[in-house]
Amino acid sequence: MINENFLADCRKFLKPEQIILDAPMSEHTTFKIGGPADCLLKPSSLEETQKILQLVKEYDLPLTFVGNGSNMLVRDKGIRGVVVNFADNIDFVRVEGTRMTVGAGAIWKDVAEIAAQHSLAGVEFACGIPGSIGGAVFMNAGAYGGETKSVVKTVRAVTRDGEIKTYSLAELDLGYRHSIFQSNGEAIVEVELELTPGKEEDIRAGIADYTNRRESKQPLEMPSAGSTFKRPEGYFAGTLIDQTGLKGLTVGGAQVSTKHAGFVVNKGGATAADVVNLIHEVQKRVKEAHGVELQPEVRMIGEK
Fold first, then answer.
1. Is 58 a catalytic residue?
2. Domain contains 24
3. Which among 26, 27, 220, 283 is least surrounded, fewest beta carbons within 10 Å?
């Protein structure tokens, strides 16, 4: 249960639709899996985010951040405390010259489209990443040889004390599926991108190529969290899983995709426990067959 005084303080600056109690996280993740969050808050500005984090600290509540929910598995008993969701209300995109300032909740596909409209190149690789910009920075998301860090200039975040902090690219510690935010617990709210001028037709051709490759190879028609495993050095996770004969392997409602072995999908009614058990089985069999230890890329949060 959430402290009633905390909720009363939140209602002083948030609208009723920005506060959701017992929010089913299956509705806020691309896996369509997950138990309820005690309290889901949807700030619409940097200032509202500041106030929320100050209150969370004052009332000493657990805190979790969610963007588009595309790279996470919420466990079956849900998430205790406060979940701050940036996906719907902080999704602005502003363009000034070759710079784009983007709200953490903006989706990569939309950012790529707006960049194309302004003849700005550099984010074509990300057109198919289903996550938000904030999530992309958090994980340094990448695809088709491109990485988020290649276009980020600065990031504005809110600390656990409710203070606004601006990070330069060098301070973000962006590596393979890693950023400083995985350890400092701060909220990514705004990202500044530096792009390069290009021809709109060339940019759109690149987007079309990446989109076609993604649609032809990935199981986009089924709920998933994207690539399930990190790329092991010297290998591709999907290839190892395929070579081990695990396409179609099923636990409950979770399945290794028959289209791309690097994806675990929800084929209907999957629980988080199904997904976790399937991941463990894949890890075990790949280790036995190839001597390679696969590490999940999917972020697992909440209570079992």
1. no
2. yes
3. 27
C-alpha 268/C-alpha 253 separation (Å) is 5
Domain boundary residue, one of 36, 57, 85: 85
Q: Which one is catalytic: 70, 132, 179, 227?
A: 227
Query: Do 182 and 144 sit in the same domain of this protein?
Result: yes
137 CB-side CA count, 13 A: 33
pLDDT beneath 70: ranges in the chain: none
| Residue in 48, 186, 192, 297 annotated catalytic | 297
What is the rounded distance in angstroms from the CA atom of residue 11 to the CA atom of residue 101? 29
Considering the candidates 124, 132, 177, 224, report the single residue annotated as catalytic.
Answer: 177
pLDDT in tens, 4-20: 999 999 999 999 999 99
In a domain, 226, yes or no: no
Q: What distance separates the 2 farthest-apart alpha carbons in the chain? A: 58
Indicate whether 137 and 52 sit together in one domain: no
Query: What pLDDT does 130 receive?
Result: 80
Q: Is 224 a catalytic residue?
A: no
Domain boundary among 149, 182, 217: 217
Supply the range of the domain harboring residue 274: 237-301
Question: Do residues 254 and 209 lie in contact, with contact meaning Cβ atoms separated by under 8 Å?
Answer: no
Selection from 119, 144, 116, 114 nearest residue 129 by Cα: 144
Token representation of residue 291: 């001597």
**What span, in angstroms and rounded, lies between the C-alpha atoms of 179 and 251?**
32
Contact 263, 219 (CB under 8 A): yes
pTM, whole model, 2 decimals?
0.92
Conformation bin of residue 173: beta by default, left when phi > 0, alpha when psi is -120 to 50 = left
Decide if 297 is catalytic.
Answer: yes
Q: Identify whether 229 is part of a domain.
A: no
Q: How many domains does the chain have?
A: 3
Closest CA to 132 of 90, 192, 100: 90
Instruction: Give the closest residue to 69 by CA, choosing from 272, 271, 225, 227.
Output: 225
